[in-house]
Amino acid sequence: AVSGPGQEDHLSVVSDIFSQAGFPTTVAAEVEPLIWSKLIVNVGINPLTAITRLKNGQLLEYPGTRRLMEQAVNEAAAVTRAMNIEPIYPDPIEHVLAM
Fold first, then answer.
1. Does the pTM of the predicted model rise above 0.85?
2. Which residues contact 3 (CB under 8 A, 6 or more apart)?
3. Is there a catalytic annotation at residue 38?
4. Contact by Cβ (8 Å): 1, 31
5. In this predicted model, what pLDDT tens digit does every residue of 54-92 receive, in sequence order?
6. Among residues 9, 10, 19, 38, which one is catalytic?
7. I need a labelling partner for 31 at 20 to 30 A (CA). Which of 41, 50, 63, 86 fits?
8. Is 80 exceeded by the pLDDT of residue 48?
């Protein structure tokens, strides 16, 4: 969260520097939903690719890995919501499957 006098201006300067370097950025007032939404994606993909040595897209080719992915995403989204943080994606599973 942005706090303190001048903090937003400082963050805007840093954001502009990254954007000028070719890394489009934005400043967000609430960072927790972004962090937890990224975690939901990582939970759905990274463990399964590490264990199976499949590429991200290949996880969808097998009913078992797809089912595990959906279960992991549902669990991570439930934990996020239990913390009163709403994921930034309306449907986390749909978003992860699109990745």
1. no
2. none
3. yes
4. yes
5. 999 899 999 999 999 999 999 999 999 999 999 999 999
6. 38
7. 50
8. yes
